[in-house]
Design a protein that fits this description.
single chain, mainly alpha, two-stranded antiparallel ribbon, two-stranded antiparallel sheet
Length: 217
């Protein structure tokens, strides 16, 4: 389908975003979304005045952080889609999400494309995302569900500049968290939580197997 360029007064064919470019845009978004919580987590882990103590339940706190970040991610993708028709990663990559019929994106489209479509696309080892490679319009399962296409709307060089910088920054924060976690007892607490969980499951299975072996008279 062609787009009408009002500035030039001509019809222009859509150029669909490639799988590779969309992957790097997705990577940028994920790194951006994890930058703030990882930074805050590092501040907590690196507390050197012993005001922070890691004990039983630390593992579940980490899982809560991951779940909270998961909710933020959906909000970010939906909001940027409605306001800008692209996440920041796609903006830097020169990509825009458009309705295939050239209509205006709605909240319903966002909910179908992201929470529902992304979840389905992730199934079967990401088959819904890999479908972009062979689809003539570079549409994943989530695009088919929402009736959207991802098209080229500008240059992609900004992504090639800012993505390596973001990778280095987030990588450095992760390294600092790992090293600081050893001193603060974070990893020891997580290890204890995992050990306790395994022991609880083992005791549960053992008690059930023992109970099934008894004969009731």
């Amino acid at each position: 389908m062609a787009n009408y360029d009002r500035g030039k007064g001509v019809m222009q064919e859509r150029e669909y975003g490639s799988y590779t470019l969309r992957f790097f845009a997705y990577l940028f978004d994920q790194l951006l979304l994890w930058f703030i919580p990882l930074s805050l987590f590092f501040v907590v882990v690196s507390a050197s005045d012993s005001t922070v103590k890691f004990g039983t339940g630390t593992l579940w706190v980490i899982w809560e952080l991951i779940f909270f970040q998961w909710i933020i991610s959906w909000g970010y993708l939906i909001l940027t889609f409605i306001l800008f028709k692209a996440s920041f990663g796609k903006m830097f990559a020169g990509l825009t999400i458009e309705k295939e019929n050239e209509g205006k994106p709605t909240l319903a489209d966002a909910l179908i494309r992201f929470p529902v479509g992304y979840t389905v696309s992730s199934l079967l080892c990401g088959l819904g995302y890999l479908w972009i490679i062979k689809d003539p319009k570079k549409k994943g399962f989530h695009d088919h569900f929402a009736g959207t296409v991802v098209v080229k709307s500008g240059p992609s060089w900004p992504l090639m500049i800012f993505l390596p910088i973001l990778i280095l920054v987030v990588g450095l924060i992760i390294i600092l968290i790992v090293s600081s976690g050893v001193e603060s007892g974070l990893w020891a607490a997580v290890g204890n939580d995992i050990g306790n969980f395994i022991q609880t499951v083992g005791d549960f299975l053992k008690n059930n197997s023992t109970g099934q072996g008894k004969t009731v008279i």
